[in-house]
Specification:
The chain has seven helices and eight strands, in the order ββααββββααββααα. With 232 residues, the protein is an alpha+beta fold. The strands form two sheets. It has a five-stranded antiparallel sheet, covered by helices on one side. A hairpin with a 2-residue loop joins strand 5 and strand 6.
């Protein structure tokens, strides 16, 4: 199965710096996206560290592992890379006053033959667009999601909640972090969208699906998603 990749980030209209970071390695099927948080430029530093470190380490491991590597081995490699990146961000935040309190959410995917292994931390998401329908295949690690799961609020209330950006899991905040990972079977014409809340807070699932449904090149669809978020 042949894969196409496109990556795009944008600072939006409220910030001068871009706290989102994307790293792709098409040759190894690696895609990593992070959304940083923290004062001044700390969020940008955290997300950049996460994507660069994880892409580099995973790509090297996949090259050494070669073809036929088992799914559980890939998951374990993902967990180790994320743990190492978490410790690097955590140590940097605790040894540099200007980076104190920085952290980042994360979503990543490894595409191999007929499978994709998706991992995430926080509220950065992965969506699958298949057969005209859009599916959210990650579940946010957030206070809002916990409230929804417990039946404390409705989806309508969640859409206007002031707790939208309170994550319960992130890289760099503590010395350990748990990556949630799962495997999916790929089908021809599938589109997997990795994104931060900079998109999903502004653009509805229906709008995302409409943009992904076009025959435009992936780069064009990515730009339309960003433009739509900025226009809201």
């Amino acid at each position: 199965m042949n894969f196409e990749y496109a990556g795009l980030t944008d600072p939006g209209l409220l910030r001068e710096n871009n706290e989102d970071s994307v790293a792709l390695d098409p040759a190894r099927g690696v895609a990593v996206l992070a959304d940083g948080m923290g004062g001044y430029n700390a969020g940008e530093v955290a997300s950049g560290m996460a994507t660069a470190f994880i892409k580099s380490e995973l790509s090297r491991w996949l090259t050494e592992a070669g073809a036929g590597v088992k799914s559980k081995e890939v998951r374990r490699a993902m967990e180790i890379c994320v743990d190492n990146a978490n410790r690097a961000i955590y140590n940097s935040a605790n040894s540099n006053a200007q980076y104190a309190g920085m952290g980042t959410t994360l979503v990543m995917a490894i595409f191999q033959d007929t499978r994709v292994i998706v991992g995430h931390v926080g509220d950065s998401r992965c969506y699958l667009f298949r057969g005209g329908d859009l599916y959210q295949i990650t579940r946010d690690h957030s206070l809002l999601q916990e409230q929804l799961d417990a039946g404390l609020i409705t989806p309508e209330e969640a859409a206007v909640s002031l707790n939208k950006n309170l994550v319960t899991r992130a890289l760099g905040v503590e010395d350990t972090v748990l990556l949630e990972a799962h495997e999916h079977v790929l089908e021809p014409e599938d589109v997997y969208l990795l994104c931060s809340d900079g998109l999903t807070d502004m653009v509805s699932d229906e709008q995302i699906a409409q943009i992904l449904a076009t025959d435009d090149p992936l780069e064009t669809r990515a730009k339309k998603l960003v433009d739509t978020a900025n226009a809201m």
